Amino acid sequence: MANKKITTKTIRAMKGGEKISMLTAYDYSMAKLVDRAGIDMILVGDSLGNVMLGFDNTTHVTMSDMIHHTKAVSRGAERAMVVADMPFLSCRLGVYEAVRNAGALIAEGNAAAVKIEGGEEISDVIRAITDAGIPVVGHLGLTPQSVNQLGGFGIQAKTDAAAEKLLRDAKAVEEAGAFAVVLECIPRALAKKVTESLAVPTIGIGAGPDCDGQVLVLHDMLGMFDDYVPSFVKRFAEVGKTITAGVTDYIKEVKEGSFPAK
Ligand code: KIV
């Protein structure tokens, strides 16, 4: 992709063509590094609850957490499109409240789009938010905000009935106006079917190689977080080990008096 700011138009045009690259980031300096590397989309995921705030799931993340981190990421992203997660319940308490919350992520956070977990049941909200001029990315399959209802973080839509429901949800989300859909932890064959059935791009995470793009949590793929690492994650670097080694050397040199030099 050329060095031009990525927009919904760019992402839609990538359907079935060049794969979309997406990673999470939660702060200014990481956003700058990821942007500089040429990523297409930066997700300010509510996974920040796990990797930045130390919670055991994303239900504890608030609108003010999301606005705070989205502001920082937006300042660091020149080219990438910044998408901010709508946190737990922020779009489940009525359409008015949902549009107001999405608007805050755009107006205060300076995001270019929001991501919403859920299918058919939330399509009226997706419609209202897109009608308000705010681009929406859908999120189906494993929807971590529903972890208490799902009973864990395993693979979703394994039965024929569940797969059919997911396909219906994907169509409903697309019809409601979403310009892309994240598919998390679903069988490869189903992700392929959804991808072939939608006119908008799919972005997979633990959903196999046939989606129109891929997303990972930055801290997982760079080896900076090991409280819990899903099996589908590939480690592209061992940044955590590099940080620990650098800090260990610093401590040693301070203790023995070799830093700072005379
Ligand atoms: O919050 C997040 O990081 C996400 C991705 C896992 C898709 O929603």
Itemize the secondary structure elements and their pairings.
Elements: H1 8-13, E1 20-24, H2 28-37, E2 41-44, H3 48-51, H4 63-76, E3 81-85, H5 95-107, E4 113-117, H6 123-131, E5 136-141, H7 147-150, H8 160-175, E6 180-184, H9 188-197, E7 202-205, E8 213-216, H10 218-221, H11 239-256
Helix pairs in contact: 2-4, 5-6, 8-9
3-methyl-2-oxobutanoic acid is lined by residues 24, 43, 45-47, 85, 182, 184, 205, 215, 217.
Q: How would you describe this structure to a colleague?
A:
The chain is of the alpha/beta class and 262 residues long. The chain has one domain: Alpha-Beta Barrel (TIM Barrel), CATH 3.20.20. Helix content is 41%, strand content 15%. It is built from eleven helices and eight strands. It has helices at 8-13, 28-37, 48-51, 63-76, 95-107, 123-131, 147-150, 160-175, 188-197, 218-221, 239-256, and strands spanning 20-24, 41-44, 81-85, 113-117, 136-141, 180-184, 202-205, 213-216. The protein has an eight-stranded parallel barrel with strand order 1-2-3-4-5-6-7-8, surrounded by six helices. α5 crosses α6 (123-131) and α8 runs parallel beside α9 (188-197). Bound molecules: 3-methyl-2-oxobutanoic acid. 3-methyl-2-oxobutanoic acid binds at residues 24, 43, 45-47, 85, 182, 184, 205, 215, 217.
CATH topology: TIM Barrel
Taking the sheet with the most strands, its summary is:
8 strands, parallel, barrel
Mean pLDDT level: 97
The helix-strand sequence is: HEHEHHEHEHEHHEHEEHH
Strand composition percent: 5-15%
Q: Low-confidence runs (pLDDT<50, min 5 residues)? A: none
In the CATH hierarchy, what is the class? Answer: Alpha Beta
Q: Which overall shape is indicated by the principal axes computed on the Cα atoms?
A: globular
Oligomerization category of the chains in this entry: single chain
End-to-end separation in angstroms reads 49 Å
CATH superfamily: Phosphoenolpyruvate-binding domains
Q: Summarize the amount of helix as a percent range.
A: 40-55%
Q: What ligand species are in this complex?
A: 3-methyl-2-oxobutanoic acid
Q: Strand pairing plus helix content: what structural class?
A: alpha/beta
**Count of DSSP-assigned helices:** 11
Rg computed from alpha carbons, rounded to a whole number of angstroms? 19 Å
Strand element count: 8
Number of domains in the coordinates?
1
Question: How are the strands of the largest sheet arranged?
Answer: 1-2-3-4-5-6-7-8
Q: Any guess at the CATH architecture?
A: Alpha-Beta Barrel
